[in-house]
Design brief:
This is Peptidoglycan glycosyltransferase. By secondary structure, the protein is an alpha+beta fold. The chain is built from 20 helices and 23 strands. Among the domains are: about 90 residues; about 350 residues, DD-peptidase/beta-lactamase superfamily (Beta-lactamase), CATH 3.40.710. The strands form 7 sheets. Strands 2, 3, 4, 5, 10, 18 and 19 form a 7-stranded mixed β-sheet that branches. Helix 11 packs antiparallel against helix 20, helix 13 packs across helix 15 and helix 13 crosses helix 19.
């Protein structure tokens, strides 16, 4: 039998047994399995695609939009505050805040140091950061600390503030030179006259904790008028790059809402008068040894305030170490017992109700007993005869109480109300106090022995000055004003509504009292008994009406009236024969028992201020000197 030829190089093919499954464990099996898995994956992906594009399309579209668009707030420029002559007292300037991401800077240097070296910004990281700090300081001014800047640049973390209020043009140069520095739009509130009127204006600063961040008023008129001053912010929508840097993409700005600037605020004060009042008050405080003091200069006809000064004013440009308690306005928030300046109520009542005239003679005893109180005068005397002008001019407690008894408590309380005591003036300054007048129903037997001589009730200096404004203005009290006008961004000028005046006494009574108060300022070269208590405040060539006051304070240790702690007050009308201005002064705790003469009277301070005011306002001299009035009979 012949043999089958053998084919070398190719193995024989084994055929599967009949009935055995073909391809098990072979490559063809893996292909089948792969196709099944692929089909299942496509089915799942298709289902997910349907869900995303159909059911969840709106949700994913919104998320995508949020990721690539950013709403940028554009803060409105805050309105300026000016005095009555449009001298700027506060205004805002656009600035830039420079920030850096130190971590990003270090990482970027490591990745591409040649980029920096090519720009000749430093051969290594240390030199680069040193040059950066030096350049920023050189460009923005020597007020910056180069070491502090360098420490911030090299700090750890993703956010460091380098400069808070940089000039926008110089800031742009820095950002262009250093890609790791970014800038944010800000505003800086500037007070060009520093401490002048700071107790009125208060201050505003940038607040990052507000939404949106911006300049907000913290105290004073900046706070009270914040809504009008800050204006209405605008906005714009931009696209930003993905990632943590959030860089704005050029050419994507849209949906612009223009910011509306804030209203300007014009005050009634005169910046020059305010400055002089503060300077004179601070100097007098130092001479008298007083703890503090305040002064008001007011227009007699309109109630407009030309100056409202307090001692120790703060600089709103630099408030870092100034506590909020030092930013108040004691002239409207801190009431005090006025002392003898309150005797104007008795003088006005005695004339208004026909009880006495300036030359009416009154028997003034050496002491006066009322209920459980025995009252004496500031100087020792026996039983004397004094005119009503003398009772006011020499400030007799006893004579005042004798007149007050004839007026009666009910009519006296009515006069206190008409003079504006026990109620806020409505001037519009934050923190105003109404003072305290004991309700008639709560009076004890000795209450009426205190009130007429200015003890047992409290008032603010603004209220006290307002009392004398009524007498200067022929008996018509006009509540004081500090805001003259609001100047809106559309050019319109809105004047705050004027409060209704209050008739206190008749015009004739007011003139009689005003003329009688000239006796306070007189000095008789021939008879010291005819000298008033305020003659050091007299002004040559001008008739002046005034009233001095001294009030004991409560000793915090004993709870009784102190013999060493006093409030010293003065109120004056200038000129008396043709009133134009009213001045009120208060000194708190001067060295009354051990200090110089200035510690026992505020009349010399009035003289200083009055001398300035007649020049500043070009007030003509009085046609005649005030006649010498008879105060005490021989």
């Amino acid at each position: 039998m012949a043999k089958r030829p053998v084919v070398r190089g190719r193995p024989a093919v084994r055929r599967p047994r009949r009935g055995a499954p073909a391809g098990v464990g072979t490559h063809s099996t893996r292909i089948v399995v792969s196709r099944v898995v692929l089909v299942l994956a496509l089915v799942i992906a298709g289902a997910r695609l349907v869900q995303v594009q159909g059911v969840e399309a709106a949700t994913w579209s919104e998320k995508a939009e949020q990721q690539r668009t950013t709403v940028i707030n554009v803060q409105a420029l805050r309105g300026a505050i000016t005095d009555r002559n449009n001298t700027q007292l506060a205004f805002s300037a656009e600035t830039r805040q420079l920030t850096i991401n130190p971590d990003w800077l270090r990482e970027d240097w490591k990745k591409s140091p040649k980029d920096y070296q090519a720009l000749d910004l430093g051969k290594d990281y240390d030199e680069y950061t040193q040059r950066m700090a030096a350049y920023i300081r050189q460009l923005l001014g020597s007020g910056l600390n180069e070491t502090d800047l360098l420490n911030r640049i090299r700090a750890s973390g993703k956010y460091q503030v380098l400069v808070r209020n940089a000039d926008p043009s110089k800031s742009a140069q820095i950002v262009k030179r250093y890609r790791s520095i970014t800038q944010e739009a800000r505003q800086q509130r500037i007070y060009p006259d520093g401490t002048v009127a700071s107790n009125l204006i208060g201050f505003a600063n940038w607040r990052d904790d507000q939404k949106p961040p911006g300049v907000h008023g913290l105290v004073g008129l900046e706070n009270a008028w914040d809504d009008q001053l800050k204006g209405t912010d605008g906005s714009r929508v931009v696209d930003t790059a993905s990632g943590n840097d959030g860089l704005e993409l050029p050419g994507t700005t849209r949906d612009i809402e223009t910011a509306v600037p804030g209203s300007g605020l014009q005050l009634t004060i005169d910046a020059d008068v305010q400055y002089q009042a503060q300077q004179m008050l601070d100097n007098y405080k130092n001479v008298s040894g007083a703890q503090d003091g305040s002064m008001v200069v007011m227009d007699k006809a309109t109630g407009e305030i030309y100056a409202l000064a307090v001692t120790n004013s703060f600089d709103p440009n630099n408030t870092e170490n100034v506590p909020l308690s030092a930013m108040g306005n004691p002239a409207v928030s801190n009431p005090f017992e006025p002392g003898s300046v309150n005797k104007i109520v008795t003088a006005a009542g005695a004339v208004e109700y026909g009880i006495a005239q300036p030359d009416t003679v009154v028997d003034v005893k050496s002491q006066f007993k009322m209920a459980d109180r025995t009252v004496t005068d500031a100087w020792s005397h026996g039983d004397v005869q004094m005119t009503l002008a003398g009772i006011i001019g020499k400030s007799s407690n006893i004579g005042t109480l004798e007149m007050a008894q004839k007026i009666g408590p009910d009519r006296f309380v009515d006069l206190l109300t008409k003079f504006g005591l026990g109620q806020k003036t409505g001037v519009g300054l934050p923190g105003e106090s109404a003072g305290v007048v004991p309700p008639r129903s709560q009076w004890s037997g000795s209450t009426f022995a205190n009130l007429p001589i200015g003890q047992g009730l409290t008032m603010t200096l603004l209220q006290m000055t307002g009392m004398y404004q009524a007498i200067a203005n022929d008996g018509l009290r006009v509540p004081p004003r500090i805001v003259k006008a609001e100047r809106r961004p559309d050019g319109s000028v809105v004047t705050p509504p004027k409060p209704d005046p209050v008739r206190v006494v008749s015009p004739q009574t007011a003139k009689t009292v005003r003329d009688m108060m000239r006796a306070v300022m007189q000095k008789d070269p021939e008879d010291i008994n005819q000298n008033g208590t305020g003659y050091p405040g007299a002004l040559a060539g001008y008739q002046v009406s005034g009233k001095t006051g001294t009030a004991q304070q409560i000793d915090p240790n004993s709870g009784a009236y102190s013999n060493s702690l006093y409030w010293i007050t003065f109120a004056g009308v200038l000129p008396a024969d043709n009133p134009r201005l009213v001045v009120g002064i208060m000194l708190d705790k001067p060295k009354y028992t051990s200090g110089p003469a200035e510690s026992r009277s505020a009349a010399p301070l009035f003289h200083q201020m009055a001398s300035y005011l007649v020049q500043h306002f070009s007030i003509p001299m009085s046609a005649t000197d005030a006649p010498i009035q008879k105060l005490q009979l021989p």
